[in-house]
Amino acid sequence: MATRSSKPAILGGTPAHKKPWPAWPIHGAAERRLLLEVLESGKWWYGEKVARFEQAFARCHQARHAISCTNGTAALEASLIACGVGAGHEVITTPYTFVATASAILRVNAIPVFVDIEPDTANIDPKLIEKAITRRTAAILPVHFAGLPCDMDRINRIARKNKLKVIEDACHAWGGTWRGKGLGAVGDIGAFSFQMSKNITAGEGGLMLTDDGALADAARSFVHIGRQKAGQWYEHFIAGTNLRMTEWQGAILLAQLKRLPAQVATRQRNADTLDRELAKIEGIRVMRREPRGLPRSYHLYLFRIDERAFGLSRERLIECLNAEGIPCHGGYPFPLYRNPLFQRRGKGARFCPVSCPYYGRKIDYSKVHCPEAEQICRDVLWLKHAMLLGTERDMRDIVAALKKIKDHAAALR
Question: Is 358 exposed, middle or buried (0-12, 13-18, 19+ CB in 10 A)?
Fold first, then answer.
């Protein structure tokens, strides 16, 4: 551990952390064996390995049905379509998330309605959801950001009262739970991503979970070119598309899934250490713990800085931490509604559904303002999930680096 007299690395001192962090993705003999099985079988298309992965993932999350697809964005789009969301509808969601959460809504010709976040979770604020409901609202799309569960009790209660669907964006939440039930299966349907950066990955890939057989059939039909279980091969019932997962992805994900419980436990243990120690440093705020959502999947570890109390700007802190061997960054530079996509700047600024007459009223995202989402974009720091697979000493190096930087804040300004 660094001491108060230690000079910050950016000023020529010794970095707090000098060894490599855990690499990502992790793979081994299990992936090789399963991939060779696919190669030698000659059956590379959507088949036995994909079916096995779907069944295993559903069991892991206590869900009745799992429907795989090409990526998390496709899973969100298919979930919306399965729930009947389309032209003229509104979907309530968060502005603090990856663009795919909102672009999937646009892709089904519905309108994203942004509701602000809770400052101590970075998740959609349930207290604000009901005020945003209109006669056009068809669904609520909460995001379990960084793996921290949204308050699904309140969200489901609001949805039932207003006869709305709940579509969970669980693309950060593999292995996470809400009251013992796997996230993604707590609402009506939930979407997952297996993209390269994710906590289990096949480079790309997606999946939906639901306990509703009708929703499962509708989602499967959409990703399988409109086919249905009772139909013939060349009989297509809806305007679906080809979003099927391959056997290569299914093979890798089967191996990745077996590692997930141990990795969830390691990340949780290390995040607990960071929560406990970082909370002692003036000017740092850790995110709220959710006892109903344990174990939790950590796709990111977030903490926030009060620049005045810490004595340094966030940007300078990030620069100093990286010099100490603690890779971090500030995440999204602004909420989703401030993207050119929503501000209608540049080529292609006119698009459906925002510029289409069937919506029935003008939507102007330049007037949207979510102060908590704006603020978190200015003061949060992100640590990637692979860092949480390190040792307790690694976590204490993170703490030591922050203490050292704070102790020397005046010299670092």
Answer: exposed
Query: Is 334 known to be catalytic?
Result: no
To the query of whether residue 332 is one of the catalytic residues in this protein, the response is: no
State whether the Cα torsion 57-216-99-136 is positive or negative. Answer: negative
Contact 81, 191 (CB under 8 A): no
200-259 residue pLDDT tens: 999 999 999 999 999 999 999 999 999 998 899 999 999 999 999 999 999 999 999 999
Q: What's the mean pLDDT in 311-323?
A: 98
227 is catalytic: yes
For 185, phi then psi, to 5°, come to: -120, 15
Q: CATH number of the domain at 29-256, out of 3.40.50.1010, 3.40.50.10490, 3.40.640.10, 1.20.1250.20?
A: 3.40.640.10
Cα–Cα distance for residue pair 169/101, rounded to 1 Å: 7
CA distances 282 to 7, 12, 29, 292, Å, are: 19, 25, 46, 28
Q: What pLDDT score was predicted for residue 411?
A: 96
* 3-state class (DSSP) for residue 192: strand
Q: How far is CA 366 from CA 123, 144, 204, 358, 378, in A?
A: 22, 26, 33, 21, 19
Of the listed 135, 229, 232, 234, which one is catalytic? 234
Catalytic residue among 53, 57, 96, 98: 98
Catalytic residue among 17, 172, 299, 338: 172
Give me the catalytic one of 49, 61, 165, 244. 244
* Residue 131 annotated to the active site: no
The number of helices, as runs of H, and strands, as runs of E, in the chain is 14, 12
Set 116, 125, 151, 169: catalytic member: 169
* 234 annotated active-site: yes
65 alpha carbon, distance to own chain's centre: 21
pLDDT at 348 over 80: no
Amino acid at position 362, single letter: K
Catalytic residue among 195, 228, 343, 375: 195
Does the annotation count 195 as an active-site position?
yes
**Of 89, 198, 296, 403, which is the active-site residue?**
198
The pLDDT > 90 percentage for the chain reads 90
**Eight-class DSSP state of 47:** S
Residue 98 a catalytic site member: yes
- Annotation marks residue 280 as catalytic: no
